[in-house]
Design a protein that fits this description.
- With 325 residues, the protein is α/β, with parallel strands linked by helices.
- The protein has 11 helices and 12 strands.
- The protein has one domain: Alpha-Beta Barrel (TIM Barrel), CATH 3.20.20.
- The protein is 30% helix and 18% strand.
């Protein structure tokens, strides 16, 4: 069974948020004061999340990325991940984290069946890191990355490039891919919360690549099955690779293969769509058939592309932590 949208795209990737809470307050993700807290009854239970995942996998979902907020702040996550990893038909189980709790949890995550980590890391400079995250301890994150590496977890490092804030570190991040088996990914800044100065923060992918080209020789890599939207590259002799994700300057919507589910059970077929479906009533009643109908309906309604660019953003502002990273 396959999930196909009305444009013939195969939807086989589910981003599953398990909390909207986070232990950081990144500038581009949420306001300094955070977001209104959901009650325990607002968010899906682990049993409901597992029912959703099992149903989606039975319909052709092959890759699940567990996100937040910060997923590692939710109690019981290791056992949940182990149960999720055991679902027949799931090929890839990935987790996105800010790394603050990795030092203590990396080995357990590996044991639970997580196959790869995506770690948000927007600066290698302690003061810049604290400025972006408003409260983050870079040393703690770096210790977590080291623990994950020792646990044998493949690592992707995601850097949101913001002009005038961290763009001077682009080459430093590229160098990480030379000596380590890391995949470093540069992500264009997206105006999700629509700050007044958002246009000044955007650095198009072509400009990022030009900076790298002036310093290094590299080759383009083939796009792997079930890979994300990044165009990946490898420097000659490097252990790792680097990539660009360009949601504004070079839409990858034509190859989009994902849907998102928030921690409260809302389904989004596109990050910048304002159309959502609420799965919570069906999950609470354990009605897998209704969940299937809803998933197929929102997949069919998936838009051809979003309308965001480096110069325009007509969407309603939202916090990334509320939708799932």
């Amino acid at each position: 069974m396959e999930l196909l949208d009305s444009y013939g795209r195969k939807i086989n990737y589910l981003r599953l948020a398990i909390t909207d809470r986070c232990n950081l307050r990144c500038q581009y993700c949420m306001p300094a004061e955070g977001v209104p807290k959901q009650t325990h009854n607002d968010i899906l239970s682990f049993e409901e999340l597992l029912l959703l995942a099992k149903t989606a996998i039975s319909m052709g979902i092959e890759k699940v990325r567990v996100t937040g907020g910060e997923p590692l702040v939710r109690k019981g996550i290791v056992d949940f991940l182990a149960r999720l990893a055991s679902i027949a038909g799931l090929k890839h189980l990935v987790l996105t984290t800010n790394g603050l709790l990795l030092q203590e949890m990396a080995a357990d995550l590996r044991g639970a069946g997580v196959q790869r980590l995506n770690i948000s890391l927007d600066s290698l400079q302690p003061e810049t890191f604290k400025r972006i995250t408003r409260c983050g301890d870079l040393a703690r994150v770096m210790a977590g990355i080291d623990a994950a590496e020792k646990a044998g977890l493949p690592i992707k490092l995601n850097m949101v490039v913001m002009r005038g804030i961290n763009d001077a570190e682009i080459l430093d991040f590229v160098r990480l891919s030379i000596d380590k088996l890391y995949t470093v990914r540069f992500i264009e800044y997206m105006p999700t919360i629509k700050e007044d100065n958002w246009k000044s923060l955007v650095m198009p992918g072509r400009e990022i690549l030009n900076r790298i080209e002036n310093e290094f020789e590299f080759k383009s890599l083939d796009h792997a099955e079930l890979a994300g939207p990044a165009q990946n590259y490898k420097i000659d002799g490097a252990l790792g690779s680097f990539g660009l994700i360009t949601p504004l300057s070079n839409h990858f919507c034509g190859a989009c293969n994902r849907i998102r589910v928030t921690s409260s059970g809302k389904v989004w077929s596109c990050l910048f769509s304002e159309q959502e479906y609420d799965l919570k009533p069906f999950l609470r009643s354990k009605d897998a058939t209704a969940v299937k109908v809803a998933l197929r309906r929102i997949t069919t309604a998936k838009p051809e592309k979003h309308q965001i660019s480096c110069c325009e953003a007509e969407h309603k502002a939202f916090t990334m932590s509320s939708i799932g990273g």
